[in-house]
C-alpha cells in the first residue's frame, strides 16, 4: 500500500516575516541612496542592486520611487515599519494624559528629538526632491500641512491646562512649535553647529516653556 503523504502546511507566518525583511531591506537601500546622492539621481535599479532584489520585487513590496519616498517619510515619523496616525502614537497619548503644560512640553521635546534623528536626513532629501518632482512636491506640502494641524492640537492640549500666555492664541502657539520642530531647525543646530541631541531636547523644552507659558 502506498504511504499516505500529508500535504505540507503553508507557513504564512514565515512568509510574512520574509516579506517584511525584504521590505525593510528595500527601504534601507532607498534611504541610503536618497540621502547620499539625492532623489532625482537615484534609480530603482540602484535601489534593487543595493537591496539585493530585483526591480519587480520593489514594485510589488512598496511601489515606485514616489511610494518609496512616502514610506520612508511615514516610517521615519512613526519609528516603526508602518505609518501610525498621530492620535495613535504613544507619546501623543502621554501628552494628553500629562497634568501640566510643562510636562506636556517635556514629553514632546523628547519625542521630536527622537523623531528628528530618524527623520531629518530623509525630510531634507524630500525637500530637495520637491523642487523638481511633482509627487514629492505634493508629499512635502501634505506633510507640512499635517504638521501644522497637529501643532494646533498640541496647542489646544496646552491651553486646557490654563498655563499658556493669554496674549498668544492657539495659532501663534502652533506656529512657534511648528517652526522649531522642523527638520531644518534640527539640522542648523545638531548637524551644522554640532549640538548633541540631548542639548537640542533641553533647548527646545526650555525655549517653549519660556516662550509659551505664563
Can you describe what's shown?
By secondary structure, the protein is an all-alpha fold. The protein has 2 domains: 12-63, Arc Repressor Mutant, subunit A, CATH 1.10.10; 81-212, Tetracycline Repressor, domain 2. Helices cover 72% and strands 0% of the residues. The chain has 10 helices and no strands. It has helices at residues 12-37, 44-51, 55-61, 65-78, 90-97, 101-129, 134-159, 170-180, 183-192, 197-212. α4 packs antiparallel against α6 (101-129) and α6 packs across α9.
Structural class: mainly alpha
CATH C-level label of the largest domain: Mainly Alpha
Main beta sheet: none
Strand content: under 5%
Low-confidence parts lasting 5 or more residues at pLDDT below 50? none
Radius of gyration: 21 Å
Terminal CA distance reads 88 Å
User: So, CATH architecture of the largest domain?
Assistant: Orthogonal Bundle
The number of helices is 10
Arithmetic mean pLDDT: 92
Name the helicity range.
Answer: over 70%
Give the tally of structural domains: 2
CATH topology of the largest domain: Tetracycline Repressor, domain 2
Assign an overall shape. elongated
* Overall strand count: 0
- The string of secondary-structure elements, in order, is HHHHHHHHHH
Amino acid at each position: 500500500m502506498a504511504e499516505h503523504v500529508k500535504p505540507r502546511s503553508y507557513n504564512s507566518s514565515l512568509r510574512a516575516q520574509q516579506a517584511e525583511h525584504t521590505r525593510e531591506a528595500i527601504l534601507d537601500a532607498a534611504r541610503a541612496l536618497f540621502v547620499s546622492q539625492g532623489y532625482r539621481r537615484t534609480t530603482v535599479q540602484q535601489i534593487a542592486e543595493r537591496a539585493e532584489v530585483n526591480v519587480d520585487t520593489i514594485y510589488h513590496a512598496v511601489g515606485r520611487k514616489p511610494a518609496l519616498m512616502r514610506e520612508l517619510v511615514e516610517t521615519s515619523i512613526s519609528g516603526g515599519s508602518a505609518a501610525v496616525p498621530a492620535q495613535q502614537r504613544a507619546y501623543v497619548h502621554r501628552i494628553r494624559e500629562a497634568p501640566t503644560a510643562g510636562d506636556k512640553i517635556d514629553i514632546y521635546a523628547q519625542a521630536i528629538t527622537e523623531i528628528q534623528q530618524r527623520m531629518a536626513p530623509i525630510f531634507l532629501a524630500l525637500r530637495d526632491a520637491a523642487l523638481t518632482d511633482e509627487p514629492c512636491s505634493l508629499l512635502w506640502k501634505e506633510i507640512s500641512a499635517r504638521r501644522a494641524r497637529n501643532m494646533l492640537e498640541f496647542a489646544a492640549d496646552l491651553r486646557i491646562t490654563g498655563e499658556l500666555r493669554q496674549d498668544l492664541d492657539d495659532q501663534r502657539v502652533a506656529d512657534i512649535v511648528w517652526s522649531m520642530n522642523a527638520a531644518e531647525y534640527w539640522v542648523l543646530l545638531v548637524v551644522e553647529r554640532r549640538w548633541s541631541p540631548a542639548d537640542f531636547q533641553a533647548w527646545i523644552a526650555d525655549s517653549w516653556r519660556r516662550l509659551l507659558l505664563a
